[in-house]
Amino acid sequence: MLSKIYTIKENLYVNSLYIDKLGLSFNQFIVVSKDKNITIIETGFRKNFNELCKNMTFIGLLPENIENIIVPHFEADEMGAVPEILKVSNKKVNIYAHPICTFGLNDIFNTKAKPVKDNEIISIFEGCSLKFIHTKHVHQWDSLVVYWVEQKILFSSDLFIQGGEFTGINTNNCISEIVDSIKKDDYLPSHTHLVNALNKINENEIEIILPMHGSGLSDNIDFYIDSLKNLNFE
Fold first, then answer.
1. Nearest to residue 83, comparing CAs of 75, 93, 73?
2. Residue 119 sits in which domain range?
């Protein structure tokens, strides 16, 4: 199981681990400021952190410059490497998460994670304002997604996921792959909460969606949102 790192934009990278047995990729998103400080959205698994560090170093990024961690919910692939990041970083690391998630992080890892309010916007660095959107009971009760205001990018965690490897930003229609993933793995517990979350997400102008599993999406974002709102869970 080897991960690969991809350049999305000059200051945005995706590190992706593909697990063949699961037929699923696990993505970490790396946002870099002009002075090379790093924000990680989704930490990946703890056991894969050394490989993440190697991939970052390969493209000239220093793991010790990790300054911010964003945890979309309390699950191993989303927050498992938190203690490893705290070990290597020479920065004061900020950890942002849903209030329920921060309670767990602070208890298990003895951190001082900061709870974010629904629709709260935090300026991470110049040109990177992140909006935190609570998506309660969409996959987990402490779930949130993150919207990069200036770049119009949604880091959608376990929404809009597809099976298979990360292949970049897909401009093709992937709704069948997204629906297949939902029905195969049954990972969305409440259609009512899903619709509420999609309505909140749709208040933002989105050009790219980057899910935790699978490839990125662009074009026809409204179509994806409407399709999932009308999805029959039966």
1. 93
2. 3-229
Question: What is the three-class DSSP state of 33?
Answer: coil
CATH number, domain at 108? 3.60.15.10
Domain contains 219: yes
Q: Per this entry, what is the length of the chain? A: 234
Is residue 234 in some structural domain? no
Phi, psi at 26, each rounded to 5°: -125, 115
For 4-42, the pLDDT digits (tens) are: 999 999 999 999 999 999 999 999 999 999 999 999 999
105 sits in which H/E element: helix 99-109
pLDDT tens, position by position, 91-109? 999 999 999 999 999 999 9
Please give the DSSP secondary-structure letter assigned to residue 139: S
Number of domain units in the chain: 1
Are the beta carbons of 109 and 95 closer than 8 angstroms?
Answer: no
Helix axes 221-229, 175-185, angle to 10 degrees: 30
What is the rounded distance in angstroms from the CA atom of residue 51 to the CA atom of residue 45?
10
**Which pTM does this prediction carry?**
0.96
pLDDT at 1: 67
